[in-house]
Amino acid sequence: EGVIAVLEELFNRAVDLQTASQDDAIGIELVKIILLTLPYLIASSSGEAVATLQQKASELLEKTDVVASTPHAFEGHVDPYPMSGDSGEKAMTAVSVISMLQRQLQEEASSGWQLKCIPRVYVPKVAPTADGDGEEANGDASKEFPKHSFPAINVPSTVVEGPRKLFPEMFFSLYADQEIESVPPTSNIASSLLRDAVVDTVNILDFNRIVVAKLLSEIDCFWAPGTFVKRSTAFDKLRSLQTEGKPTWKPEDVAIDSVFSQLFQLPMPEHRLVYYHSLITESCKIAPGAIAPSLGRAIRFLFRNVDSMDMELGYRFMEWFAHHLSNFEFRWKWAEWIPDLNLSDLHPKKAFIIGVLDKEIQLSFAKRVRDTLPQEYHLLIPASKEIESPPFKYAEDSMPFAKEGREVLGLLKKKAPESEIQPVLDVVHSEAVNHGVEPLIATTDVYATAICSIGSKSLSHALSTIDRCKERLHAVGPQSEAARRQIISSVFEFWSEHPGTAVNIVDKLLNYSIVTPMSVILWALQDHMDRGRALAKSETYELISITMKKMTNRVRQILRERDNFALDFSQRQAIDEALPRERESMRALFAAIEDAVAGVAEGAQDEMIERFDGEELEQTMIQGWGQRWAKVWRRKAIVEEGVVGEAAIGPLKEAPAPPEAVPEAVVAPADDDMDRVE
């Protein structure tokens, strides 16, 4: 009785929140809590209370249907499969977790609340027989235990959202609703209950991935007998079990499915992606015979549908897959994907393969990765990628400014002062003017390329060289925006065979403020768009992502300091004045991305209109990449507005007054407590 009253109060608060704002997500979360509580409440009841609880639960379901069945405005932005793939069909229909849960409970109510997966922790009474055997069988169950009234709970009138912004949650599954049921179907309440329990375990115990992996390998111990098949049951055997009407749900599939649902959570996961990476790795180590086959089917499902997958999820899949293979000697059945090598580099599947191999090389080295691949893949890893330190282009006499480039390199290696380097750059400046080349761009290329060459030994070498030369690099930007972008061009040209390394170096240049976020955006999406083809390259997305991550983190950090009541109000006012400027800078970056990719999506980008030398299919694929980019970055812009926008943060508040100190009563110590001096 008492629990139902609390749930009804939570529902009233949810309705108030939903009425106040159609974009509210807290009310949806409250309704989700209500719906997930009902099955356990009913399953734990016994005797005469069951019928009453079932009736009240059904009445509550009628109320929650209003909230649960109403689509949220943001749902369209977090569809994991927003596009149709080559087959013309989506991998799965987008459905919100709360609407699916509502339908499942309504179906369960109509079938008498069987809730077969929930174990019953009580022992039903056994009817006594004439000789009294029943009383012995009942044991303690024959006694009437006292019942306690549920205490009153006051739900706060003001609902505090908490540190993490809430968004509608869409259901994601690798195995659900397929011909053979290795996980509960989406029509069964067990799919939501099992998923919720596993996800809570994963996200709450994130401080110890080894313990979590151990619990995931034992999830069949915590549910009703007969819910799962035996661990490590071969997938091929499930078909015969399904025909015989026996359980077919694999505990390994349920665990992996739940972890991937968090790894692929939009708009952002609960924890860092690497946590879910490491959790999957630990699970494979604990139960390789059980997890590896399930993981193999998951990988094949994801790759089969990568062309219809949300682009951000596609890159999460790419990063996880490369990271996972690096932990297991880069072993995978690459022969299965050989037919996809004949696709255009613009096709999402071919782009995925290229991106994975590049990331594997970053995590190891080219020769080792190539040795794990069939011969057909070797064209994707040419011998030039095996060169650890790229050649210095000014070593060739045929290059303009070759002599001066070698001199600058030698001076930087000797750590010569700028006074010795400047005369050499002055010569480059003069020759560039004579040849009709922008002099500052020429000198910047010579200087930046020399820095890249010195720093090619390791990232620490690159950082120390950049730090030593940062004053001259800093001076380039204010003189010429084109020269500032030339720094990025020089880095990517030098590391053309290893674009991931180039991205890492530009990341450091951003940290030093040598290049600006806007210069990176315009360099990638304007100067080097290549009529939209750049959007299919993983390094382009990675470069834009790290740039925008730095900017959004900066704005969020300013917001946190603005609301830090430990600071003086005057300090917080100064921060509050800086917030609009930084927010507008962030919006300008999102607008620049939107302008660039929207033109590609519509086939209206300037260079695409002027000249297109590919086939119609190629143009369609390029426009598809534009649509993927537009969807991802529009979503990210909406998320940031929901966190740092004017409507989200409100006016600056003064620190709450400290509570009045209550004087403590002075109690005379007992004689035994007094220190005695003998």
Describe the fold and architecture:
- The protein is an all-alpha fold and 678 residues long.
- The protein folds into 4 domains: 2-115; 190-385, Alpha Horseshoe (Serine Threonine Protein Phosphatase 5, Tetratricopeptide repeat); 387-515, Serine Threonine Protein Phosphatase 5, Tetratricopeptide repeat (Alpha Horseshoe); 532-649.
- Helix content is 58%, strand content 0%.
- It contains 26 helices and no strands.
- It has helices at residues 2-20, 26-43, 49-68, 97-110, 133-138, 189-204, 209-216, 235-243, 251-263, 273-286, 288-304, 311-326, 348-363, 366-371, 402-413, 418-434, 439-454, 459-479, 481-494, 499-511, 517-527, 538-562, 569-601, 606-610, 616-644, 646-649.
- Helix 3 (49-68) runs antiparallel to helix 4 and helix 21 (517-527) packs antiparallel against helix 22.
- The longest helix has 33 residues, at 569-601.
- Residues 184-375, 392-640 form the MIF4G-like type domain.
- This is MIF4G domain-containing protein.
- One of its GO terms (molecular function) is RNA cap binding.
- Pfam families: MIF4G_like, MIF4G_like_2.
- It comes from Hortaea werneckii.
